[in-house]
Write a structure and sequence with these properties.
The structure is a single chain. The chain is an alpha+beta fold. It has three domains: 180 residues, PAS domain (Beta-Lactamase, 2-Layer Sandwich); 93 residues, Signal transduction histidine kinase, dimerisation/phosphotransfer (DHp) domain (Helix Hairpins, Orthogonal Bundle), CATH 1.10.287; 134 residues, Heat Shock Protein 90, CATH 3.30.565.10. It is 60% helix and 17% strand. The strands form three sheets. A five-stranded mixed beta sheet has the order 2-1-5-4-3, sandwiched between helices. Strands 7-9-10-12-11 form a five-stranded mixed beta sheet, with helices on one face. A two-stranded antiparallel sheet has the order 6-8. Helix 8 runs parallel beside helix 9 and helix 9 runs antiparallel to helix 11. The protein is elongated.
């Protein structure tokens, strides 16, 4: 039992470790994602602020106009070759106060001055961000910056002057800087995880010992029950799963004696079954023996011999039917027998069953009326369902008094009805038992086979009888 306690402890700690790790990693990754999102949002705000500061700067506005003139109209008198030098100090101040790299990016003749970089000289990812900003968008990304030779969080923002965009601000921060800020949070998660595991190991060990103690008690009781000492109780009254197990064992102990009596009854039923089979076989065998002896002793003439042969033929048919019914019942009661379920329309099966009983009905001058109100589709073994319905129809043909059998389909049931003598309550209780017969006809196995077929399909069958009618109903529920 100590081994079981250790196994339970290891199992519970393993589960705790897995779920704690998953929870910690998930929470940390979510926090990391949100942190980066907030960080990037902050950078975008700073980039926009710097862009607006540059755009609204008198130095920039003046230089921007000169630059526009320099692009298409030549330089104004007294201009220098690098008109951007007037606000280089602004970029320098921003670069020194910002924890990262600040780049002012232009293109063509707007670039290559002090602190102004040509967009074509940037790496591919930075150039993609800058191109979006030249279209008026503030954008961001995290990547390895080959221009700065490090992993960066990069944000680009357009510098808009009088509706024109000739420059873009690029803010680049080292990812390592962000990771350093996240490392303290990560360390906190790791410490909390280790603490939870240590505490969990202690609690799980104590819990395992508490679980094992009643199991040991249950083991002692089950050993006594195995030795035939019925009535031994665990006396465990807890409300948890082990308590329920103990209660079940106590219940089992009390029920074993009753089960023994039930087993004795089953054995008696087997003996009765054997006796019933022997009884059913005795009459036709005796008749055939007497008939054969008559022929053998030469006590019959030609006409009588023909009658005897016909009688023997009928008795052989009865024996064949009895054997076939016994085989069918035995096969259905075998849990290893697999039925072949498929989607079938109920009315099609009923029509086939009616056709199989048409000759018997005609011989008895009985009309079969089929009222196909519904035509439900069910999952069933076609041949077995046909056999079930044939049994019910055949039974109704035998006992109908008004020479009519009514069959009706509803969405959830089949009803086979005939007008006849009321079946008593005691007979209704036993009507589906093997070898139970109301009259001299048959062998008492047909309805037992029908019930077993219904059971194997998960259907329900019942017999209802009143003063005027008897109904056999098969429910599909």
């Amino acid at each position: 039992m100590n081994s079981l306690a250790k196994k339970l402890s290891v199992f519970f700690v393993g589960i705790l470790l897995i779920f704690s790790t998953i929870l910690a990693v998930t929470f940390y990754k979510t926090y990391e994602k949100n942190y980066y999102e907030r960080y990037i949002t902050s950078l975008e705000t700073q980039a926009k602020s710097i862009s607006n500061t540059l755009a609204n700067s008198e130095l920039f506005r003046g230089q921007g106009k000169n630059m526009q003139g320099g692009r298409g109209q030549g330089r104004m008198p007294g201009q220098s070759m690098h008109p951007m030098s007037g606000f280089n100090s602004i970029i320098k101040i921003v670069d020194e106060t910002f924890l990262g790299d600040v780049l002012l990016v232009g293109r063509d003749d707007f670039a290559n001055s002090n602190n102004v970089f040509d967009v074509e000289k940037l790496d591919v990812q930075s150039r993609a961000l800058v191109e979006k900003s030249f279209d008026g968008k503030t954008s961001s990304d995290i990547f390895y910056n080959t221009f700065l030779e490090k992993n960066t969080v990069t944000v680009s923002s357009p510098v808009v002057e009088d509706g024109n965009i000739e420059y873009v601000i690029l803010l680049n921060t080292n990812v390592d800087t962000v990771e350093m800020e996240l490392s303290s949070i990560r360390n906190t998660f790791i410490f909390a995880l280790i603490f939870a595991l240590v505490l969990g190991m202690l609690l799980m060990y104590l819990l395992s010992r508490r679980i094992v103690a009643p199991i040991k008690q249950i083991e002692d009781v089950t050993n006594k029950i195995a030795d035939g000492k019925f009535g031994e109780l665990t006396k465990i009254k807890t409300k948890d799963e082990i308590g329920h197990l103990a209660q079940n064992i106590d219940y089992m102990s009390r029920k074993l004696e009753a089960n023994k009596l039930e087993q004795d009854e089953i054995e008696q039923n087997k003996r009765d079954f054997t006796a019933d089979v022997a009884h059913e076989l005795k009459t036709p065998v005796a008749v055939m023996k007497a008939s054969i002896e008559s022929i053998k002793d030469g006590m019959t003439n030609a006409a009588t011999k023909g009658e005897i042969i016909d009688q023997m033929y009928d008795e052989i048919n009865l024996l064949e039917r009895l054997v076939n019914d016994l085989l069918s019942l035995s096969k259905l009661e075998n849990l290893g027998f697999k039925i072949n379920k498929e989607e079938v329309f109920v009315n099609q099966v009923i029509n086939d069953a009616i056709r199989s009983q048409r000759m018997i009905a005609k011989k008895n001058d009985v009309d079969i009326v089929f009222n196909d109100i519904e035509n439900p589709m069910i999952q069933a073994d076609y041949s077995l369902m046909k056999q079930l319905l044939s049994i019910l129809i055949n039974n109704s043909i035998k006992y109908t008094l008004d020479k009519k059998v009514l069959i009706e389909t509803q969405i959830d049931r089949i009803i086979v009805e005939n007008k006849g003598v009321k079946i008593s309550e005691d007979s209704l209780k036993n009507i589906f038992n093997r070898f139970y017969k109301e009259g001299p006809e048959g062998n008492g196995l047909g309805l037992a086979i029908a019930k077993e077929i219904a059971n194997r399909h998960g259907f329900r069958i019942e017999a209802i009888s009143d003063v005027e009618t008897t109904k056999f109903i098969v429910y599909f529920d």
